[in-house]
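Researcher: Re-running this chain for the archive, since the previous output was lost when a drive failed. Same request as before.
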Amino acid sequence: MRPLHYLAALLSVSSVALADGAFYGDPPDATHPWGIHDHNRPQPSVVEPGSFSSQEKPGTPPSDAVVLFSGQESDLDQWQSDKNPAEPTKWIVKDGLLQCVPGSGYIQTKEKFADCQLHVEWSEPEDITGTSQGRGNSGVFLMGEVEVQVLDIYNNKTYSDGAAGAVYGINPPMANPIRKPGQWQVYDIVFRRPIFKDGKEVDPGYLTVFSNGVLVQDHTPLEGGGGHKKRSQAHPFPEVGPLKLQDHGNPVRFRNIWYRPLPKRAIDGGDTSVMSPEATAKKRAEIAAGIREDAAKLEGKAKMLRLFESTYYAANEDATQSATAMVNEFAAATKAIPADKLQSKKGEIMEVNNALQYLIKFQILPGDFAAAKTLNGIVKANEWDKKKK
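Model: Regenerated structure tokens:
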């Protein structure tokens, strides 16, 4: 026989209340490691947003951004030429702007990265010279592999898959929102590299591009990265690579360059809403183990419910046996409460009963589970299950 203070603990309101979501939405399944409205799902990281740019002043990046150029002369220390071996760049910082020196060659970051949200602002010379591809040409190369074209296309026609905002040689922009020369243009880019498994492409990689706030590339497949004149073929990209800016013989200026690393996709081993059955089973076992560790720090009803909660992620005989023993004692103690005292325990009884009914509904507990029958009988006898009119 358990001591009376143990049974009291089972019937008491725990100081560690379960967050909204336990025994609530549909549970995890074969390809979804979390339930619907799952309170065990990690919260998004808090990011302090930056500010928008104006023509007169660049905005500020979000708090988790990696800043590649902010207008300081010292920012050039993060960049180098793309020659092999690398050497210091001949590009210059003038009036807080990163400016291409025609004929000096491409520039690239020393830092290497892959999937990202990238922000780049650029401006063409006000003095208009050249036509088509010869007018204010440059480019933003993700991982040094795939180019988002930079070009003055304000009243300047060129081949469409080489226009500003194009994935060069692959896909034209859906619109031309480019401002006149001398004004600042803004690219916001979401980049996902191609993924190969066992020599086969399983994800082609994608680019989404906003130009001056207008969507110009919508999840465009990379098709190998594109290029000049020849159709590119799918091939593996490196795990990480530099950001490159192109010298195409025009003194294009840049400012406010930063990126945010993106989490991995499911196909690359990331934790996402939908995962492979193997990855889902592994993740569910990991979540269940964490919940059991949390339960070990609790007492009474809170511990019992947390143990039961772990079982809809992954079966565990010890957790089920412990929780079952505790809920049987809870049901017996509840049954022994005088009828005129039950109302004061309604909230606790309903909480446990609802949890058991949830576990039965989704076949985690058997339909004839004894404690569930006892508690559900008490709920129905007191008409607690009927909604008030």
